[in-house]
Amino acid sequence: MENHQQDDGGLQWFAQIGCREQIETEHSERKDRIMSEFEIHRATKRRAKLRLGMSGPAGSGKTYSSLLIASGLGGRIGMIDTEHGSGDLYADLLPEGYDVLRLAPPFTPARYVEAIHTLEQAGVSTIIVDSLSHAWSGEGGSLDRQGKIADRSGNSWQAWRQVTPEHNALVEALLQSRCHIISTMRAKTEYVQEKDERTGKQVVRKIGLAPVMREGIDYEFTVFMELDAHHMAYVGKDRTRLFDGMIVKPDVELGRRLRSWLDSGAEEEAPKAMDEKQLAALSDSILHADTLDELYNAFAAAYRAANAIPDAAAVAELTRVKDERKAALEASEEAEIS
Fold it and tell me: Could you give the angle at the alpha carbon of 281 between the alpha carbons of 278 and 285, nearest 5°?
């Protein structure tokens, strides 16, 4: 018995060929959408701002060294001092002088972010964060906050889910700042006993180990130095390739060499403006923050978005909105206490 194909008006063709064309069209459209989410450009060295991390044990000269390097970078210097006024001890070190912003406990990441923004608005060229370790291990720092949240909730993992975004916001503020950033960190200290080759006697030597900060912080910097008790620095990481793997003496000339490398490159792109709808949405998120922690998280996200463009006017407007909301929340807290 013969099988006879009946004329179905092209239904079979559509089911096979038409369906395949539809799939190919949808795949092409999806591919175009994916491609539109990414930008491919020729690698170009552009002028940049320094991100320098510096760790060392007590007495290694972190504050002193950071001031000398900052002087070599040029421009106005602002220091965030968490070391109980030690930032003023070197007032006569630099002919041009420098400004100090004292940061007292609690050393929450949010307060660090606010201090960074304050110095940016003051017009400094280089911000020295002395020291960044307090944001991690100090009173009100990430470890302290995590412990207190975990004690209340009984859930250590949930506590980290609250603390980690705050820590990340601080790292972003350091990376996105329009100023040069030099961050000092304390180092865990250990003493070793070794033989003095000249005298043959055993001597005790102090060495610095990992920085007192969240593990992996050194990856965030352009250059990372480890200072020793003799005020010399081992450059363990250096994207400029000027001092990689070397032992150097931090001084003004080192800062000048870094500045020369940072300034060698294409001009930065002309400033852009943030979309009005995005600015309104970010302002709204700040205005609807119910606590200071929520406020700082909302502002950190908004600041990153505006600074990435970069749009200085948007940063100023978002800062104004944040200050208003902060004043309102603080007034509400005072009223509840009284």
Answer: 140
Cis peptide before 283 (omega within 30 of 0): no
Radius of gyration from C-alpha coordinates of the chain: 27
User: How is 102-143 classified by DSSP, letter by letter?
Assistant: E-PSP--HHHHHHHHHHHHHHT-SEEEEETTTHHHHSTTSHH
- Do the beta carbons of residue 69 and residue 258 sit within 8 Å? yes
Long-range residue pairs from 151-158, CB within 8 A, at least 24 positions apart, any chain: none
**Distance (Å, whole) CA 315 – CA 312:** 5
DSSP states of 33-79 as a string?
HHHHT--------B----EEEEEE-TTS-HHHHHHHHHHHH-S-EEE
For residue 29, pLDDT beyond 80: no
Largest Cα–Cα distance in the chain?
111
Best CA proximity match to 265, nearest among 51, 43, 44? 44
H-helix or E-strand spanning residue 190:
strand 180-195
**Residue 66 and residue 81: Cα distance in Å, rounded?**
12
pLDDT tens digit sequence for 81-110? 998 888 899 999 999 999 999 999 999 999
In sequence order, what DSSP letters do the residues of 225-249 get, joined into one string? EEE-TTS-EEEEEETT-SSTT-EE-
User: What is the structure's pLDDT at 205?
Assistant: 65
CA 142 to chain centre: 15
In the predicted model, is pLDDT for residue 35 greater than 80?
no
Q: Is 209 helix (H, G, I), strand (E, B) or coil?
A: strand
Question: Which residues are registered as beta bridge partners of 233?
Answer: 227, 248
